[in-house]
């Protein structure tokens, strides 16, 4: 566990640990999505607490892992990758057999079955603002599991056992860099003439960063097997993903505001222009009647994007809440949340009572996001109840009354500190308690009951405040 109660700080600590001793600032300034980086530590036990073959065996024995869904058996011989999956549940004996026949064993979502990988990926999500997932690869000696390819994510190859030789190639040109889709399999011949940027062994305890779009291939040595974890970040959070998300709304907004956007195309437009190089009867009118109005509309769209980008960030956060891993709570966090302490006595323990003097705090800074749907409709999207399997459960949202918006802002402003329910800044003390109850029952906050009975008996009394929304909007610019 990373020693901080601030989730973003914990994410930074986790990342610092991953690339240690390389500097985090230097990484984001000079390496991130630009070049590959290897960190050779000479410390074979560095990742011993994260994952190894015996954790993999436990995963197989304690869970229903299926061929093609969770586990792939692959072989790469003479430049061709073959998938040799069985059917149904994967048992340790089957894996042993495949391994002895020279196959690589890939687990596509170990975070769903292994708590250490879950915690590590989950915590990194707040730093990268995206789903962080993992794959594990067990490869026997003198073998390779996959053909050269690039991925649609940035990958950290974490060598947890044995050693593996990696070849990494830079994109040929800017057009090939940072692709939006993974590539198919390349052949050895395709690699000729490409610039190789890493061609060396990754030893146990080492890390290799491979940016999206860098082709990579790997093989084990004569004597040693390899078990590595690929941690993948930055899934579908490129600017193009953001603009695709907001453009339909922006276009509608511009169309509402600009009459020229709603004019019909001129009569006979099809005789003014087209892609095929041929004679168009009214070609001379195309610029004035079609191109110029279109450029003018595009300028309005550009202007609207500058006004809409904050909502665009919210849209990306909404997607984050929908797709990311749920937080893994410590036993202490569980005890103070709706989940309850370990060994709770259902028959004799008292249910939690929320009073004005109860202290509360959000469990994570980015486990929830307040979204404005319309001027008077708000909801909290959250990832507290997400599945550990990618998009395994529908989007989780809670409608929030307008009177409670400032209560949410008080909590975010206070994070990671505790705040008393009476200081929540909703419209009234009664609403403070109702809002705290709503967040608690949805698993979003930790709660410490009031210290004593006298404090517990304090009753709500203040009158509603006015101007809630105005205050909220003013504050909104200053909150993350
Ligand atoms: Fe890959």
UniProtKB/TrEMBL annotation:
PROSITE patterns documented for this protein: JMJC (PS51184)
- Top enzyme category: oxidoreductase
Keyword S-adenosyl-L-methionine on this protein? Answer: no
| Pfam families (alphabetical) | JmjC_2, WHD_RIOX1
* Main subcellular location of this protein, as a coarse class: nucleus
Basic residues bias: where? 468-480
Q: What does this gene product do? A: Oxygenase that can act as both a histone lysine demethylase and a ribosomal histidine hydroxylase.
Instruction: Write down what this protein is called.
Output: Bifunctional lysine-specific demethylase and histidyl-hydroxylase
């Amino acid at each position: 566990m990373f020693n901080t109660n601030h989730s973003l700080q914990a994410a930074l600590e986790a990342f610092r640990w991953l690339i240690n001793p390389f500097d985090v600032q230097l990484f984001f300034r000079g390496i991130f999505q630009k070049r590959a980086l290897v960190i050779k530590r000479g410390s074979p036990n560095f990742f011993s607490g994260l994952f190894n073959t015996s954790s993999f065996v436990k995963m197989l024995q304690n869970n229903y892992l299926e061929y093609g869904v969770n586990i792939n058996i692959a072989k790469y011989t003479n430049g061709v990758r073959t998938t040799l999956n069985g059917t149904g549940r994967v048992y340790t004996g089957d894996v042993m057999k495949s391994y002895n026949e020279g196959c690589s064993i890939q687990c596509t979502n170990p975070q769903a079955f292994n708590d250490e990988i879950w915690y590590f990926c989950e915590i990194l999500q707040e730093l990268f603002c995206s789903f962080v997932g993992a794959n594990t690869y067990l490869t026997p000696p003198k073998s390779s599991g996959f053909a050269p390819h690039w991925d649609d994510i940035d990958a950290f190859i974490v060598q947890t056992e044995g050693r593996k030789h990696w070849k990494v190639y830079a994109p040929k040109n800017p057009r090939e860099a940072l692709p939006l889709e993974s590539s198919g399999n390349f052949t050895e011949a395709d690699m000729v003439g490409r610039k190789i940027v890493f061609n060396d062994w990754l030893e146990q305890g080492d890390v290799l960063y491979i940016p999206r779009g860098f082709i990579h291939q790997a093989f084990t040595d004569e004597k040693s097997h390899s078990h590595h974890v690929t941690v993948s970040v930055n899934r579908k959070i490129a600017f193009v993903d953001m603009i695709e998300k907001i453009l339909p709304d922006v276009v509608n907004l511009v169309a509402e505001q600009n009459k020229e956007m709603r004019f019909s195309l001129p009569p006979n437009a099809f005789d003014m222009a087209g892609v095929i190089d041929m004679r168009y009867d009214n070609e001379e009118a195309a610029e004035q009647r079609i191109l110029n109005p279109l450029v003018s509309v595009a300028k309005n769209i550009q202007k609207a994007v500058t006004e809409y980008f904050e909502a665009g960030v919210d849209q990306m956060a909404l997607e984050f809440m929908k797709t990311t891993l749920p937080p893994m709570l410590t036993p202490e966090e569980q005890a103070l949340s709706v989940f309850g302490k370990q060994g709770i006595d259902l028959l004799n323990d008292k249910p939690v009572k929320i009073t004005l003097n109860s202290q509360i705090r959000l469990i994570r800074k980015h486990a929830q996001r307040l979204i404005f749907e319309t001027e008077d409709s708000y909801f909290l999207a959250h990832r507290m109840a997400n599945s550990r399997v990618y998009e395994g459960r529908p989007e989780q949202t809670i409608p929030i009354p307008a009177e409670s918006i400032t209560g949410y802002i008080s909590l975010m402003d206070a994070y990671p500190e505790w705040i008393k329910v009476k200081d929540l800044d909703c419209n009234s003390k009664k609403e403070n308690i109702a809002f705290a109850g709503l967040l608690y029952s949805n698993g979003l906050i930790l709660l410490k009951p009031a210290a004593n009975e006298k404090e517990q008996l304090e009753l709500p009394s203040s009158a509603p405040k006015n101007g809630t929304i105005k205050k909220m909007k003013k504050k909104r610019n200053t909150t993350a």
